[in-house]
Amino acid sequence: MDSHSSTAREKINSVEGLGEFARRVQKDGKKVVLCHGVFDLVHMGHVRHLEAARREGDVLFVTVTGDDYVNKGPGRPIFGEQMRAEMLAAIQYVDGVAISYSVTSELVLGLIRPDVYVKGSDYENSDDDITGKIHQERETVEKYGGHVVYTKDITFSSSSLINRYLDIYDPPLRDYLLELRERDGLNRITDLVERVKHYRVLVVGDAIIDEYQYVEPMGKSPKENMIATLFQNKEVFAGGVFAAANHVASFCDQVEVVSVLGSAESYENIVNSSLKPNVTFTPFYRDGAPTTRKSRFIDHTMRKLFEVYFMD
Fold first, then answer.
1. What per-residue confidence (pLDDT) applies to 260?
2. Looking at the structure, do residues 255 and 204 belong to the same domain, yes or no?
């Protein structure tokens, strides 16, 4: 794996593999540089950022956040982790790419231990970072003898470009979000959240148990016109009114739920264990009936194959 690999894909490695490569080149006296991010839409700002980063050392690694750990809103990332990694590996300044399966970059920093960790100029002021991640990243880098450098060149926001030029939302929703932004919607929403935080809320609705059966498709049954699957695992959640109550509880002091459970299969323990501490549940019971349960069968790509309803 080096900058002269015949294909971009040959530059893609695991984080552990990049760490081993880093130890070898550092032993030879070379300086390792690392950039980390989502890189959902690679643009000229990223190219200039990587170009500047490469000038900071002898070897440049880039790690990208895995799909399941991208926290950019609905429909994101637009490009999958493998595609994002390959796009970055195709850039001439980059010597190695890996996908990080972690919420934060501290694990990556601890394994690669770069001499220089390069961030964009929009991360330079740690006082603007409400998450505290920038400070934690700097501490991790310095723990292994490295330091942080901030590039100063043209900057773009991948999220802004995606929201403006790619139709990831239906036109009415896109137009509404644009209008909301132009009318100072964030401050209005923040004000509304502050006004309801001391509310006591009653939520009445249907009790639904969501069951997810994770299966591996095995193909069509040889004797029947149906899909055969192999069971892998399952999860059971309190959905319906209980999910709604938990969402409301994130904004309000107290929430009470009133709903009906079946006496035959109540799932009351699951319901009570799933509710947030500021949610109380007052149940009524239907004799001889089960609590409504929706059982969904999901393959390894999270595609829903079919579902079965249990209710009376």
1. 95
2. yes
Q: How far is the C-alpha of 246 from the C-alpha of 147, rounded, in Å? A: 42
Give 55-97 pLDDT, tens digit per residue.
999 999 999 999 888 876 666 677 889 999 999 999 999 999 9
Judge if 20 and 66 occupy the same domain. yes
pLDDT at 165: 47
Same domain, 112 and 176: no
pTM, full prediction? 0.54
Counted domains in the chain = 3
Same-domain pairing of 186 and 294: no
Q: How many CA atoms lie within 13 A of 141 on its CB side?
A: 22
Per-residue confidence (pLDDT) for residue 168, from 0 to 100: 59
Ranges of residues in the chain whose predicted pLDDT is under 70: 1-6, 72-76, 122-132, 153-169
Contacts for 131-139: CB closer than 8 Å, 24+ residues apart: 133/104, 133/105, 136/104, 136/106, 137/104, 137/105, 137/106, 137/109
Is 2 within the bounds of a domain?
no
**d(C-alpha 83, C-alpha 41), whole Å:** 10
Co-location of 42 and 55 in the same domain: yes
Among 213, 15, 195, CA closest to 102: 15
End-to-end C-alpha distance for the chain, whole angstroms: 61
Residue 3 within a domain:
no
Residues 76 and 218 grouped into a single domain: no
Contact by Cβ (8 Å): 51, 57? no
Provide the residue count of the chain: 312
Closest CA to 95 of 52, 55, 66, 62: 62
